[in-house]
Amino acid sequence: MAKPLLIYLDGNLVPETEAKISVFDHGLLYGDGVFEGIRFYNGRVFRLTEHLNRLYESSKSILLNVPLTFEEMEKATLDTIAANGLRDGYIRLVITRGVGPLGLNPYQCPKASVFVIASSISLYPQEKYDCGLTMVTCATRRPTVAALSPQVKSLNYLNNVMAKIEAIQGGGEEGVMLNEQGYVAECTGDNLFLVKRGEVFTPPISAGGLDGITRRAAMDLLTEMGVRIHEVNMTRHDIFTADECFLTGTAAEVIAAVALDRRLIGDGKPGPLTQKLVAKFKALVNSTGTPVTYPV
Ligand code: PMP
């Protein structure tokens, strides 16, 4: 049996069997909380500051008082990785509104809870990176910006969960989520990019997708490669007629998508620009990041 993980929970590192949250925590009762997913490679955390910035912005947006300073959160993250002796993996940082009475009033929850899980992850098998993902257009729309901002990475992921169910039931691996106007927003856990005639296209963040940190990293790499990027509204038509499609996300990294609604995109194989970007992304994540200090 695998060694139990040590989980950071409100200031302590505890074995996973003891890392428990109350049934009265509003994170559980109402999805009232925020989270981040972060990767570390070769003992270095990728874009830690950007992830923590997004976590604190999500918290600020929902008026959630984070009981840790930015530096303390950074330390909790690095310490959790070190305590588990992990060199490559995934971190889940969660801040919940904390324990309160059954009513939804967050002002009756005196203290937010913070937990950090550092673990290994393999979202898709290698074969999917070699051959690409198939996608399905989801009936569930990405919520409008008039509802909770899509930039808040909240614990309420039910829209995306429903979209993922639709993708899988439709025979695909990822779901394309449209916004209320019918423009492509993003996938259920990734941002979407198209390649056409050597140029790259991606929906603007205002279309309702999350301002992905992998998205930004991919755009920086493409710019370095001299590729022009256009942030434009796009529809399914644009995906059907693209030469290549790829997705970006912390968990999925950079991965080709080769079909939508059973129609092949391009020739139905990961395209040359996507493959070049995947290689550049791998090199980047293995050579940068905040170092973890491991106990000797
Ligand atoms: N969109 C959604 C809905 C997500 O959950 C994620 C994963 N955080 C992304 C996009 C990709 O963002 P990032 O590259 O920061 O992981």
Automatic annotation (TrEMBL):
Pathway per the UniProt entry: Amino-acid biosynthesis; L-isoleucine biosynthesis; L-isoleucine from 2-oxobutanoate: step 4/4; Amino-acid biosynthesis; L-leucine biosynthesis; L-leucine from 3-methyl-2-oxobutanoate: step 4/4; Amino-acid biosynthesis; L-valine biosynthesis; L-valine from pyruvate: step 4/4
EC number assigned by the record: 2.6.1.42
Gene Ontology CC annotations of this record: cytosol
Keyword Transferase tagged: yes
Keyword Transferase on entry: yes
Keywords: Amino-acid biosynthesis, Aminotransferase, Branched-chain amino acid biosynthesis, Pyridoxal phosphate, Transferase
InterPro entries linked to this entry: Aminotrans_IV, Aminotrans_IV_CS, Aminotransferase-like, B_amino_transI, BCAT-like_C, BCAT-like_N, Class-IV_PLP-Dep_Aminotrnsfr
Cofactor: pyridoxal 5'-phosphate
Source organism superkingdom: Bacteria
PROSITE patterns per record: AA_TRANSFER_CLASS_4
First-tier enzyme category under EC: transferase
UniProt record, GO biological process: isoleucine biosynthetic process; L-leucine biosynthetic process; L-valine biosynthetic process
Reactions catalysed: L-isoleucine + 2-oxoglutarate = (S)-3-methyl-2-oxopentanoate + L-glutamate; L-leucine + 2-oxoglutarate = 4-methyl-2-oxopentanoate + L-glutamate; L-valine + 2-oxoglutarate = 3-methyl-2-oxobutanoate + L-glutamate
GO terms for MF: L-isoleucine-2-oxoglutarate transaminase activity; L-leucine-2-oxoglutarate transaminase activity; L-valine-2-oxoglutarate transaminase activity
Task performed by this protein: Acts on leucine, isoleucine and valine.
Family membership noted in the UniProt record: Belongs to the class-IV pyridoxal-phosphate-dependent aminotransferase family.
PANTHER family (UniProt xref): AMINO-ACID AMINOTRANSFERASE (PTHR42743), AMINODEOXYCHORISMATE LYASE (PTHR42743:SF11)
Protein name, UniProt field: Branched-chain-amino-acid aminotransferase
Organism of derivation: Roseimicrobium gellanilyticum
Lineage: Bacteria, Pseudomonadati, Verrucomicrobiota, Verrucomicrobiia, Verrucomicrobiales
